[in-house]
Amino acid sequence: MKRSPQFVGLTFAVALLVPLALAQESHISRDGGAWSQEITGTLAAVKNLRVKVDAGSVILRGGQQQAINYMVHTRAKTSSEQDARRQFENFKVSAWVKGDTAWITGDWQGKPPRHFSGEFTINVPREMAWVKLETDGGGIDAMGVTGKVDAASGGGAMHLDDIGGGVSAETGGGSIEVGTITGDIGLRTGGGPIEVHHANGKIVAETGGGGVEIQSAGQDATIETGGGSIELRQCNGKAKVSTGGGSIDLGDINGPVDVDTGGGSIHLASAKGHVRAQTGGGGIELYGVPSAHVETGAGGIVVKLVNTGGERSDSMIETGAGDITVYIAPDVAVTVRASVELGNGHRITSDFPDIHISSEGGPYGPKTLTADGKLNGGGPVVKIHTATGDICLKRAGR
Fold first, then answer.
1. In a domain, 258, yes or no
2. pTM for this structure?
3. Is residue 348 domain-resident?
4. N vs C: which end of the chain shows fewer Cβ within 10 Å?
5. Can you list the residues of the chain whose pLDDT is less than 70?
6. How much is the pLDDT for 398?
7. Residue 33: other Cβ atoms inside 10 A
8. Do 313 and 276 share a structural domain?
9. Are 126 and 45 in contact (CB under 8 A)?
10. DSSP string for 199-259
């Protein structure tokens, strides 16, 4: 008998829904001074998955299975089995497939009790295109899918690893730990620390006050914290980094750098582009940069100028109170203009005969020190200034 397309489509929809009702099972048992319920079920393998729960943590694992399998473990801390069953009934766990998206939800029917916890463990095919995980308060742990993962929690900790399509993760205050991600990353937490091992794409990491540690960024990196320290070991693009008051430690940056801290120290191993570094009061060390704009309210400064082969611009190196040491590579052509505002008891020294050092003022009055000169015929201006401190101009190796 020939069947119409409408009949075939209806049969397919029913075939998806029937196994859901048959496959989901629940079991209640005693758990110490509480009661626990375990719900298991199976959904058809589709492109996308959405998980949205009012309570509980979410664990997602990608693998070689051909279906979506889930297990929900809930726990009610009460001595009465009747009370526990009432709580389990009020926390409704549902699962269904609509189009190319599978849904798993956990919804409170009424006011949630105080001593109730849940854990959703979901195993999916690795080739999922998109997964969205949402919980009002628990943690999220996801790994092993080739698509994109979006995760949101009201305040729990997050762990994400081995994700092929990028990650967006946000939590109200928990920590965020990320392993290897292929694709762009956006991370936000209200106050917890952030740690990233390897990001192949662009990364944006923001926290209200925790520290941030990123081992490797394949493209541009933007990092911001309200007051914690920041460490970025390697970045293949430009880096924009800021903290309200912690220290900043940067490794090798394959592009320009913009770094700012309210009062901590700044250290940079190397950068291929222009560097802007500013702190309210800590020391600054920049090694292997083509040019830089450096300011600190009170602290020493060390800068090494090298020829990176890219475009170079003028530099300004300034501290309100502290010593400044500038290393200049032999193949760098610059025009140096240095000054010590309150030169009494301080000095300017130089390894370069082409830089001329002079002073103004008597032995009993204010004394100003200056140094000017062109290296390798001159080039972009390097302006160096300290209100009170020594300036040392040194020859650097290549």
1. no
2. 0.90
3. yes
4. N
5. 1-23, 362, 398
6. 56
7. 8
8. yes
9. no
10. ESS-EEEEESS--EEES-BSS-EEEEESS--EEEEEESS-EEEEESS--EEEEEESS-EEE
